[in-house]
Specification:
By secondary structure, the chain is mostly helical. The protein has 21 helices and no strands. Helix 1 crosses helix 16. The radius of gyration is 23 Å and the shape is globular. It starts with 13 loop residues before the first helix and ends in a 6-residue tail after the last helix. Bound molecules: tryptophan (TRP). The site of tryptophan (TRP) has 16 residues, from helix 1, helix 2, helix 12 and helix 16.
């Protein structure tokens, strides 16, 4: 295998890598989605389950992705092809099954799904295991099309905030402002394009001078803004109810569906399942400790999600608003909440809040673009600047369609016709369809593919070998010896048959994580009911 780690650009240091990867993970998922789904699923009880999912499934898969990237020093497609260049009888069998499913679906008139399975079958025949990476490289186009829409809203709200257009006192007024995007989608399109262009601007400068520099500046700023907002929220009269809502576990409200939502969200929130972490890992050099880096990324992501809950719920409760408002919680309730505080600087708090959201979305958007860009550079020998240009342009086009069709399809009748033909329904907008398709299908299946590939095709042994390069003592330390505080005791000797962290990782990625993902997936497509 050609290993061009000497020519590939690398992160300046471990901190830069951790901040960039945490920047990818920390996004809209943490700041509006996590608090809201927590609210709907029993508060503290849901948080506990989410923490379990993060540690037991998210962390092992994060380690897999980073390791695969660092070993191959390539984008997701190249990484899979570097380890398994040729199709095998297994991939051909999988391809055949996909082909049969595709034909079946076409016969029943389900053209859209049939087409998707047909493409997957072709990928499996042609690229073998590389198709997991290829799907990963294509996923950002789907995610970014709606992520850019919401990113644009956050930008628009920030501008509205500082120009004092968010001085509103009722939710009706807030709804009117939000719906004005529907009446005049060109404003939303403008901000969405600005957001996408800004993401493109950062990746234009590459890894060290682009992504790493931006993350080193933006992430501390994000943390600072969040702390300010928490202090404001917690000092409101009646804030304690919000804290209680977030932290006291009410297991009565926790359903089996809630458990599955927690797992799916763990994937989205940690940016797993499509090779974003793999790509970031490919810019890492061998001297860095993957265990420690992954733990830090997961810790930061979880911390920010919990802090976002602490900033939002006390404010919502203090103002006696409904905590289960979903996406509207952020865009419609927060400005009203801040204005109702009555200290005449509500607009400032609103602006800070939307700036926070905007920064979070930006550092995530960057990672979504970089996955495709790295693929164009490695596999198709694009220069970085032309790759950035091409990807940003394509993503912008998808984003414009999504932004225009968020509220109703009628604005783009030809797209509605295509959707009607392919999926027999236009119940959901382009925006909802992109969100649903990527979160419920692409990411869990990508995560499944990655863990099975590392555990069974590449082999845990080789993965651990790669991890050892930057963290020998961690891979081979006995788990119980570590717990007991005997890590440095020469008498607690290494024993290859004992339960080391490496052994635990292997068991997780070969069995536990795939099984959990399969259960989640079957549930989300409705084949498994609890
Ligand atoms: N993790 C981000 C969030 O919480 C979203 C995101 C960025 C993402 N890159 C990703 C999700 C890659 C899945 C895969 O908002």
């Amino acid at each position: 295998m050609k290993n061009d780690s000497t020519t590939r650009e690398h992160w300046g240091g471990s901190l830069g890598f951790v901040l960039a990867a945490a920047g990818s993970a920390i996004g809209l998922g943490n700041i509006w989605k996590f608090p809201y789904i927590t609210g709907m699923n029993g508060g503290g009880a849901f948080v506990l389950v989410y923490l379990f999912c993060i540690i037991l499934i998210g962390l092992p898969i994060m380690i897999c992705e980073i390791t695969l990237g660092r070993k191959t020093q390539k984008n997701p497609l190249g990484a899979f092809l570097a380890i398994a260049p040729h199709g095998t009888s297994t991939t051909r069998s999988i391809g055949s099954v996909f082909l049969l499913i595709a034909l079946g679906l076409l016969c029943f008139g389900k053209f859209g799904l049939g087409l998707i399975f047909g493409v997957l079958a072709a990928f499996a025949f042609y690229f073998g295991w590389g198709s997991i990476g290829l799907v990963g490289v294509l996923t950002p186009f789907v995610i970014m099309s709606y992520y850019g829409t919401v990113g644009g809203w956050t930008f628009a709200y920030f501008i509205k905030g500082i120009t004092q257009q968010l001085n509103i006192s009722s939710t009706v007024e807030a709804q009117n402002i939000f719906n004005s995007f529907a009446l005049n989608p060109f404003v939303a399109v403008f901000y969405q394009l600005m957001f996408t262009l800004l993401c493109g601007f950062v990746v234009w400068f590459g890894i060290k001078n682009g992504i790493e520099l931006a993350s080193k500046f933006l992430l501390p700023l994000l943390l600072l803004l969040l702390i300010l907002l928490i202090m404001r929220s917690l000092t409101l009269p009646g804030a304690a109810a919000g804290v209680r809502f977030l932290l006291s576990p009410d297991f009565g409200k926790l359903t089996s569906e809630g458990v599955l939502i927690a797992l799916g969200h763990a994937f989205f929130s940690l940016s797993l399942g499509m090779g974003a972490m793999l790509t970031y890992g490919s810019y890492l050099d061998s001297s860095k400790n993957i265990y420690i880096a992954s733990l830090n990324i997961v810790f930061l992501d979880t911390l920010i999600a919990l802090m976002a809950g602490l900033a939002i719920f006390p404010a919502v409760f203090a103002m006696q608003m409904n905590p289960e408002a979903g996406p509207g919680l952020v865009f419609q309730i927060m400005p009203v909440t801040f204005n109702a505080i009555g200290d005449n600087v509500g607009w400032l708090w609103s602006s800070l809040f939307f700036l926070l959201l905007f920064i979070a979305a930006l550092t995530s958007g960057i990672s979504l673009l970089e996955v495709c860009i790295s693929c164009l550079i490695d596999e198709f020998h694009f220069k970085r600047h032309s790759a950035v240009f091409g990807v940003t342009l394509l993503v912008s086009i998808m984003g414009v369609l999504s932004t225009i069709s968020v509220f109703d399809w009628e604005k783009i009748p030809w797209l509605e016709k295509i959707f009607l033909f392919l999926f027999n329904s236009t119940d959901a907008s382009f925006f909802d369809a992109a969100d649903n398709f990527s979160c419920n299908y692409l990411l869990p299946l990508g995560g499944l593919g990655i863990s099975l590939f590392v555990g069974w095709v590449w082999g845990t042994r080789y993965a651990i070998d790669e991890i050892r390069k930057g963290g020998e003592q961690f891979s081979d330390v006995n788990f119980f010896t570590l717990l007991a505080g005997l890590k440095d005791d020469p008498n607690a000797t290494r024993d290859s048959h004992s339960l080391t962290l490496g052994v635990i990782l292997g068991i997780f990625i070969r069995f536990l994580s795939p099984i959990c993902i399969i259960i989640t997936f079957l549930h989300s497509i409705g084949w498994l009911k609890f």
